[in-house]
Amino acid sequence: MTQRKNGLLTLAVLLGGAATAGAATTKEDAERPAMTELPRLLQEHGQAHQLPFVEQTARYAYEPPDDMVLNPPAEPAETTYDLWGETLTQADVARDPSRADPANGAVPITQDLLDLGQAKFYRAPFGSERFFSDIVGVGAGPITADGILKAALALDGGHTDNLRVPLAYDVSVGGRTFRKGELIDTGFDVPQGAIWPIGLAISVDETGRERVGITCALCHSAVDPESGKVIHGAANVDVNSSRLIAFAPNSTAFMTHTDIDLAEVPKGDDTVTLADGTTHTLPDAEALEERVDALFLDAFPGSTDTSIDLTANPTQIPDSFTKGEHPYSWNGIFMAGPFGGLSGLTNNVHAFGADPTGQADDARRFFGLPSEVYQAILLRNAANPAFRWDPDGDRTPDEVFRQADPTPGRPGLAEVIRMPTWPQPSLLSLDGSMIAQEGSTAWREVNAISAWQNALTPPPAAAVPEERAAHGRAVFEAAGCADCHSGPFLTNNRIIPLAEIGTNPSRATIQLIQERTPPRMWAFDEPVPVREDAKVLDVPTDMLDQDQVALAFGTGTVRGGYAVPGLLGVGWSPPYLHDGSIAVGPDGETDLGPAGTVYRHVRPDARESLRALVDRGLRDKVIAANKADDVLRRAHSDGTGHEYWADADAGFSDDEQEALLDYLMSLSKPVQEARAD
């Protein structure tokens, strides 16, 4: 009891302390909202069920109760199993019990696993708070945790899909000046009655330092604008986590997610000594920070760039209605391993995409930089002094990092471990690392998240009479949509070559990873930390189409392509296409493309955005708006390609087009089940 109480006191007292850099004056400290009273606020707002979690972990992240969710997953009727993406029923297991053996790669999908998956989806930052707060300084700039809480409390029990957060002090960022109190659009979703956004985890470490991390839910769950309830798995169409990074003091640490050309940044006075004894002059710190800040300020909401290829190619945040949608990722690179590649995708987002310190040892292969130079750039202005490298000091960047690293022996700062293939990339992991929480077992949390996402069924975006839906389905088939969007989940599970799909090629391949090692993983029952003689599973790939593998990675002369997404829940996830370039708002003449919608926090209208996919007249307007925007041109988001029409020029009447849109907006259940109803 004492330990739990101390955990609560830690959170209650330290979150209100002066741990956040930028709390500039005593007067400003006095104006900070009641983060110190978080436990009381949770009780008063009907969220006392969160207190045990807060007490035990000194962390808070919102997880909605079932009565605040539009689409709670149904309890499984029986235990099923995932075997490398194949779902096994009890009847399958009765015929061959060995297929349900975890030693052979089977994952039993129980209610306990689903409950764990939901909890981790909403609550677990997987160590991202260390990089975001200790290195980048999220929360240490003018957007503070207290400011976020203050903005949420100002809703007075209401809800929003765009929390506007006041700045704590005047600041110049990316060539622009912002004033204290100015409201910044974040796109963070706050459900009805909540006091904190979905997907942000606030915590303190043992020294009392405040940290902000992100969870899966920040991007992949959303608030219904009408009811204020949560939609599990719906894409957050206007979330703008880039604003958190831009206003942080060391945005430079995320430079590999931009198209910064270091050769074009003026050199500064700082030098770093390489392992061979030579010295390397670093880019000017202020000039580099200014350029990175400007790019993150301009990043369009609802997108994210998880690649680290020094190319600006953000992708549209997908929904998490994942059942049957393999291969995963927009270019289909995750197709092997548990849940048909879904666990690999989840692992990649947290292990590879959210912690650039994990790539320090391999910086030359990924970025063409010596590891010492890469680490020096990341750590030169680290928010936490313990991680800050001093160019005039006597320690190397690597020594600074190793002495401050709370996860010695692991890559980077996140809760990851080395896989048997580390540091070689494979179909399972792009850098050979994997998310694993100490005290658990290998793949436990990641597989739980995969199982939970696969259990989600989206609510229908619109109620459509059966006869009208059938009419729309007939148009869907006549227009050729069903050639690719086929099967129960409306995907043929294929990657379409660029030459055929015709969309912007920027995101079609993983250009940095051409050579791969056969995928191998730790056995599911191996405890973390993994012992030296841990059991290893060889991940089967013989069932994969090797031409599709080559297409996904752009191997050799193949230019790559894009995976066919499923369409269940498509009404909840505008904008459309991999680059999020197809968007139309309430005003079809002015609200065109991301610049006319999500940039301005105008919610894209799903129906009209879908119309722009199939009507070339409206598409031409969207493309013109995209090409007129400098930011979108730089991000390679233009709206071209995917030319499959259901308009007058293709021989379809206005009513047929409307019926098609009615059908698409109604999709929520697998097609066979919907027809059986």
Q: Can you lay out the helices and strands and say which pair or pack?
A:
Elements: H1 2-14, H2 26-30, H3 38-44, H4 51-57, E1 59-60, E2 80-83, E3 86-88, H5 90-95, E4 106-109, H6 111-123, H7 128-136, H8 145-153, E5 164-166, E6 171-173, E7 176-178, E8 183-185, E9 200-204, E10 210-214, H9 217-220, E11 221-223, E12 230-232, H10 241-246, E13 267-273, E14 279-283, H11 285-298, E15 303-304, E16 315-316, H12 342-351, H13 363-367, H14 371-379, H15 397-404, E17 416-418, E18 433-435, H16 444-454, H17 466-478, E19 495-497, H18 498-501, E20 520-522, E21 536-538, H19 546-553, E22 561-563, H20 593-596, H21 606-614, H22 616-627, H23 630-634, H24 654-666, H25 671-676
Antiparallel strand pairs: 1-9, 2-3, 2-4, 5-8, 6-7, 9-10, 11-12, 13-14, 15-16, 17-18, 19-22, 20-21
Helix pairs in contact: 1-4, 6-16, 12-16, 17-24, 21-22, 21-24
Number of DSSP E strands: 22
Q: Could you name the ranges where pLDDT drops below 50 across 5 or more consecutive residues? A: 1-35, 673-677
How would a textbook summarize the main sheet? 3 strands, antiparallel
The fraction of residues in strands falls at 5-15%
Number of helices: 25
